[in-house]
């Protein structure tokens, strides 16, 4: 935590203890040699890289390690095809590194629309990023020349070599060593099991927020929303429920990939009747102006109500334009209402009417 942040907490009268915390009772927590007793306890421990069943997993570096590098290695392998791998791979490739992503599934970024992801994969490969799909990492071995990553691709075994191997295969809530059992705190894979008020279902004196809670998307704005919700409920009693409707998510690659609402397969599974507005926009002026070879969109519009059910964007301004679709989804604005809007030109938002034709 930055020193200026800690100083602000001190000035606010907040005592800070550094160390690994463990529950020793329903509302008692031990940190080092000190035991704290409270009326309530809030668990907001965030997330950590998910443990991987890989021989030599101790050789994997984290996203924090990557950001702390003094020099960029020449050869970098990212294990997994999530946010961290794609975003950092785009940074490293443009800085001159030889980059590979090894992903076990058929598609990286599984929480995003497959058509948009396919376009991003093509854009990434054009930047020199070697994306290996359906590639299971079995072991990471350290040697005199760096590291060797042993993989299986179907029934074939192969090895890749790098100076740095980075964990990009997802994150897990940082709650395993909190000794939750001592406080009768129920948990699941995604985090502490909570009710609508972010209160533990098994210990009402405990609340959980952000990545530590088994609710909401693992995103920074969700953590902020959860924190504000928990604070209000602690001060005023359980009155506030977090509203996650219309929460957008962005992968900050070049170009950025953004999503909000339902994917096409999810909407069909729910039996919804909707139209799919889908196009490759690489020949649109907005893409040609900046020499962008891969861009596109997919918008799901409910047939009778014209509500926006989902929006999936890849393009130069996708990270900003997605917020307008998120606004529409959250407040049930219709496609017709969006098309009536007169947007400043030339901006990314000015393309929305064309997307909804």
Q: Secondary-structure blueprint of this entry?
A:
Blueprint lengths: L2 H9 L9 E5 L2 E4 L2 E4 L3 E3 L3 E3 L13 H5 L7 E5 L3 H12 L3 E5 L11 H13 L3 E3 L3 E8 L2 E8 L2 E7 L1 E4 L3 E3 L13 E2 L2 E2 L13 E3 L11 H17 L12 E3 L5 E5 L2 H6 L4 E7 L4 H4 L7 E7 L5 E7 L3 H13 L4 H6 L11 H4 L2
Short overview:
The protein has about 350 residues and is α+β, with helices and mostly antiparallel strands. The protein contains 10 helices and 21 strands. The protein starts with a helix and ends with a helix.
Structure write-up:
The protein has 357 residues and is an alpha+beta fold. 25% of the residues lie in helices and 27% in strands. The protein contains 10 helices and 21 strands. A 5-stranded antiparallel β-sheet has the order 17-18-21-20-19, sandwiched between helices. The protein has a 4-stranded parallel β-sheet with strand order 8-7-6-12. A 3-stranded antiparallel β-sheet has the order 1-2-3, with no helix packed on it. The N and C termini lie far apart (48 Å). The model has no long low-confidence stretch (mean pLDDT 96).
């Amino acid at each position: 935590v930055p020193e200026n942040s800690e100083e602000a907490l001190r000035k606010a009268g907040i005592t800070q203890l550094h160390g690994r915390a463990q529950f020793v009772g329903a509302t008692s927590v031990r940190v080092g040699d000190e035991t704290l007793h409270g009326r309530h306890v809030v668990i907001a421990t965030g997330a950590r890289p998910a443990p991987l069943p890989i021989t030599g997993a101790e050789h994997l570096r984290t996203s924090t390690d990557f950001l702390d590098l003094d020099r960029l290695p020449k050869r970098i392998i990212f294990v997994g095809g999530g946010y961290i791998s794609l975003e950092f791979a785009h940074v490293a490739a443009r800085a001159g590194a030889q980059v590979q992503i090894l992903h076990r599934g058929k598609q990286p970024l599984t929480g995003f629309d497959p058509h948009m992801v396919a376009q991003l994969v093509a854009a990434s490969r054009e930047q020199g990023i070697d994306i290996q799909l359906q590639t299971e990492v079995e072991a990471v071995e350290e040697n005199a020349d760096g590291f060797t990553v042993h993989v299986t691709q179907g029934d074939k075994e192969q090895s890749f070599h790098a100076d740095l191997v980075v964990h990009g295969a997802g994150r897990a809530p940082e709650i395993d060593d909190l000794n939750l059992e001592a406080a009768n705190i129920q948990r699941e894979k995604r985090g502490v099991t909570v009710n609508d008020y972010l209160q533990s279902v098994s210990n009402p004196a405990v609340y959980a927020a952000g990545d530590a809670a088994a609710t909401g998307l693992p995103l920074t704005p969700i953590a902020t929303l959860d924190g504000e919700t928990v604070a209000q409920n602690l001060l005023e009693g359980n009155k506030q429920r977090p509203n996650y409707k219309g929460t957008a998510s962005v992968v900050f690659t070049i170009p950025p990939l953004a999503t909000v609402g339902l994917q096409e397969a999810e909407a069909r599974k729910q039996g919804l009747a909707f139209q799919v507005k889908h196009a490759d926009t690489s020949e649109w002026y907005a893409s040609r102006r900046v020499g962008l070879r891969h861009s596109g969109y997919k918008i799901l519009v409910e047939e009778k109500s014209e509500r926006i059910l989902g929006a999936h964007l890849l393009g130069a301004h996708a990270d900003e334009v997605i917020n307008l679709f998120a606004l529409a989804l959250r407040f049930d604005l219709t496609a017709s209402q969006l098309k009536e809007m007169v947007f400043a030109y030339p901006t990314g938002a000015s393309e929305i009417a064309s997307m909804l034709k």
